Amino acid sequence: MADSSFSRRELLRSAALAGLLLPGAGALAACASPAGGGNTAGSQAPATGAKTAANPLGIAEDKPFEVVIFDGGFGDAYARDIHEPLFKGKHAKVEIKHTATKEIAKTLQPRFAGGNPPELINNSGDNAMDFGALAQDGQLQDLGPLLDAPSWDDPNVKVRDTILPSAIELGTYDGTFSVLNYANTVWGIWYSKKLFGDNGWEVPKTWDEFTALCEKIKKSGKAAPFTYAGKHPFYIYETILTLSAKIGGADVLKNIDNLADGAWKAEPVAKAAGAFAEIGAKYLLQGTEGLDHIQTQTAQNKYEVAMLPNGSWLENEQKDTTPADFGYAMFPLPSFTDSDALPYGTLHSRPGEEYFVAARSANPLAGVEYMRAMLSKEGAGKFTELVSTLTVVNGAADGRTLKPGLQSAASALKEAGTNVTYFRFRQWYKELHDEVAAATGQLMSGRLKVAEWADRCQKKSDEIKNDSSVKKFTR
Amino acid sequence: MTNGRTRVARRTDFTRARFIAGFLSVPVLLYLIYVISPYAQAFYIAMTNWRGVSASPRFVGLENFQRLLGDGTFWTAVGHNGLLLVLLPLLTIAIALFFAFLLNAGGTAGGVSGIWGSRFYRVVFFFPQVLAVAIVAVLFQQVFRPDRSGMLNAPLMALGLEPVGFLSNPDVAFWSILGVLVWQAVGFYVVLFSAGMASIPREMYEAAQIDGAGRVQLFFRVTLPLLWDTVQVGLIYLGIAALDVFAIVWVMTAEHGGPDHSTTVMAAEIYRNAFQYFKFGYASAMGVVLFFFTVAFAVLAMRLSRRERIEF
């Protein structure tokens, strides 16, 4: 009797153990380390279809694909309400799986490591995946065919000719165009037309006028002259770098991006850093270094501070706290001296908001075709209206109703013409970005001298240059 | 006959052993899968240049550890953890003991009792423990705000003083973090020590009081020695907490451990390198170093806590 009861129990036990062991062994293999390739969709041939005039990329008309949108400042409504219906208009049978997340890396990194990434990814936000790492591992689909495909609106014009050339340069990793920068951001100094008008303050065109204006505002006691997002010193190092490019030419920033020896110690960089360190010492809103972008921007909306450096997303970001008659507007950085390498009106403007297609996804071509839809006049124009941001599509904003701040940014960009600068190390080497931000915060609060600041930035740049595990880029 | 009986007995022993092993195997297996195996993998990943997305990391030997030696930020973080390891337990336990003593034996109303309202305070002290760490961090961001909306700076500014950059001045920020950590931990240890004090026989206090001991003497001569076991537990818990401080620093400070690395800790550097720089190999190397620090602390704590108990 005893024996038979034991054996029954044994049976149950071994069954339970077997049940535990099997998935256990799987978990052991898949826990933290990358899965070995070849066990997933990545190894299958990507889906394709016949190339026709209506389907120039030859996507499979019956295969689904997934779109992952970063649910940040732009939300994800633009994808659901504008781009996805536009795509479905031409490819009714292709199912689109829409995913929105605030945590791009956390959601997607395991899927990349596991070999089943989604097709189209809006890799944006604080927790975006590192493009350097993605490029290094061959995860980025070659978007060259997109550039040479006929545009969505006119079959006689290639996509290449409908977008800003800088978007192509910025999206090129290792000589391959593989990242679509969709939105176009314009940086400048933002102010309230109402506040300036009421007090008779004028937009400064030279550095002397700028400091004189700061002095005037300070004396008036109506508002603090200047602030920036103290907790995120990127906002001010962006301005310093743009001014240094204006003083010394676009090569100043190219050298920095290329991790050139002594790039941070170049004279124009030192001049620009010194100029803003002085602003930091004299004209900042009290407590600036402890406030974040929302807090400083809200202070500006309350007319507590007159000017702050920012990008053209500002107006949209602040739409809930901006008084109706505030009148957002921006002006380009003032000329430092008469002998600046670049003329007045030079802007920091660059395409941003990155999208890519995962090379090892099941249906990459559908992702590329989706980008073609995004780059249509309709797709881009409606995007501009909805989220109040310019795009890289030429003329897409024409005839659309823009808010005053965006209008001011658009016309500044038009006036700048080809005098547009940008830097890329923020995307290429996030470590350098973090160190420059940390050092610049200290520069602005007077704890670092200009030379010490340059030393620290240069040291990090050199470290990265000598770190074999970090992939290097050049422009 | 005897032979048959031993055989039966042996078989029962054997089945019994199997039976026990069967039950043990499940927790051991879970422990292997979820604890030992990640550790082992971390050691392996630490010797690769894995950047998180590739399926085939390259083995680089000890290169990551070599680079780690020259990583100033990481050693700043180690220094901060070291400072926390000393200060967090000391401050927390000192304050918690003081409060617990007041709540349990500090009263003046004759005999051995807590001060007036001690039941109310006991609940209030426990509040921080109930709040999620992220909420505490966001709360203190507001408390420390450098403008007129800051709870601490508003009165200062009203008095015409310069506001203090609690989180924005690199010389002050670390101490602000320490303050929050102590604030959050004290409540739990007040309750823990109160429970310990409740088990100390009242007669001991009464006897000491009859002999003319004051409150200070009561504390140092009676309470503390009899509570020593509990205090040791507290020291070890807080030591471990000091080594893996993360959420408060990450959520509360600018630049996640800033300004200018002035508040960063090891866990924050691991997180930054893994999930922001995608240097999983390098981050794992940091994790391995943290592992050895933790093991060293555990061994040390166990050595030091071998001490005779006072029986009562």
| Beta-strand content of chain B | under 5%
Largest sheet report of chain B: none
- Give the strand tally of chain B: 0
Biggest chain pair interface = A-B, 57 and 53 residues
Helical segment count of chain B: 12
Biggest beta sheet summary of chain A: 10 strands, mixed
Radius of gyration of chain B: 26 Å
Strand content of chain A: 5-15%
Order of helices and strands of chain B: HHHHHHHHHHHH
In whole angstroms, how far apart are the ends of chain A? 82 Å
Structural class of chain A: alpha/beta
- The low-confidence runs of chain A, each spanning 5 or more residues with pLDDT under 50, are 1-9, 11-31, 35-43
Relative helix content of chain A: 40-55%
N/C terminus separation of chain B: 54 Å
| Multimer state | heterodimer
Q: What would you note in describing this structure?
A:
The complex is a heterodimer of chains A (475) and B (312). With 475 residues, chain A is an alpha/beta fold. Chain A is 45% helix and 13% strand. In chain A, strands 1, 2, 3, 6, 7, 8, 9, 10, 11 and 12 form a ten-stranded mixed beta sheet that branches. In chain A, strands 4-5 form a two-stranded antiparallel ribbon. Residues 1-9, 11-31 and 35-43 of chain A have low confidence and may be disordered. In chain B, helix 3 (72-105) packs parallel to helix 7, helix 4 (118-130) packs across helix 7 and helix 7 (173-198) packs across helix 9. The chains are: A alpha/beta (475), B mainly alpha (312).
